[in-house]
Design a protein that fits this description.
By secondary structure, chain A is mainly β. Chain A has strands at about 5, 10-15, 20-25, 30-40, 40-50, 55, 65-70, 75-80, 85-95, 105, 110-114. Helices cover about 0% and strands about 55% of the residues of chain A. In chain A, the strands form 2 sheets. In chain A, strands 2, 4, 5, 6, 9, 10 and 11 form a 7-stranded mixed sheet that branches. In chain A, strands 1-3-8-7 form a 4-stranded antiparallel sheet, with no helix packed on it. In chain A, about 40% of the residues are buried. Chain B has about 110 residues and is mainly β. Chain B contains no helices and 11 strands. In chain B, strands 2, 4, 5, 9, 10 and 11 form a 6-stranded mixed sheet that branches. A 5-stranded antiparallel sheet of chain B has the order 1-3-8-7-6, with no helix packed on it. The chains are: A mainly beta (about 110), B mainly beta (about 110).
């Protein structure tokens, strides 16, 4: 079975631009979660989607948004990029979500803001 | 606030030795998970332990959970150089009852010297 695929792997943007990151979950997985990882703040939860519905959201500004498609693929968008948005963005999938299931992570998209 | 906090932040041992990492959290949980992350890669799920369980084993890994002390430990026995990685605990303590949000600690960086 193919693992979680995130594209692109690396991205360089400038302040004020916007960016869209993509995540393809493991086949059959309907839950997709997104995390931001930085050296200072560690891993922080962004949001979780299941069957195209956002079920939970972390404490991030409205510039961070996401969506999930009917095939469970998910995208996250960050608008008006700031230097502090430089991070590794990880997505994880599981069958139905929830803390009772292991999450399967992709290798992330490393976003650098200049 | 960080619900899962690992201790120590860094640990350096020799191959063949055992490594113990601890995780503390602040509020009640349903489940606790441990993950490993190699540098620049995504997280890999290791073990999930439920709040009504006290101990779980998987190969060279042993996880204990003490809900009265709100803490968990991960023991890696007979460590190998390939075990060098960051280790994170994750709980649903901050999920507002929804169970769909995992909160990660900042991790323990384990270095196993050959």
């Amino acid at each position: 079975k193919a693992g979680v695929t995130q594209t692109p792997r690396y991205l360089i943007k400038t302040r004020g631009q916007q960016v869209t990151l993509s995540c393809s979950p493991i086949s059959g997985h309907r839950s997709v979660s997104w995390y931001q990882q930085t050296p200072g703040q560690g891993l922080q939860f962004l949001f979780e989607y299941f069957s195209e519905t956002q079920r939970n959201k972390g404490n991030f500004p409205g510039r961070f948004s996401g969506r999930q498609f009917s095939n469970s693929r998910s995208e996250m968008n960050v608008s008006t990029l700031e230097l502090g948005d430089s991070a590794l963005y990880l997505c994880a999938s599981s069958l139905a979500g929830g803390s009772a299931q292991p999450q399967h992570f992709g290798d992330g998209t490393r976003l650098s803001i200049l | 606030s960080q619900q899962g906090e690992e201790d120590p932040q860094a640990l350096s041992i020799q191959e063949g030795e055992n490594a113990t990492m601890n995780c503390s959290y602040k509020t009640s949980i349903n489940n606790l998970q441990w993950y490993r992350q190699n540098s620049g890669r995504g997280l890999v799920h290791l073990i999930l332990i439920r709040s009504n369980e006290r101990e779980k084993h998987s190969g060279r890994l042993r996880v204990t959970l003490d809900t009265s002390k709100k803490s968990s430990s991960l023991l890696i026995t007979a460590s190998r150089a390939a075990d060098t990685a960051s280790y994170f605990c994750a709980t649903d303590a901050d999920s507002g009852g929804s169970n769909y949000k995992l909160t990660f600690g900042k991790g323990t960086l384990l270095t196993v010297n050959p």
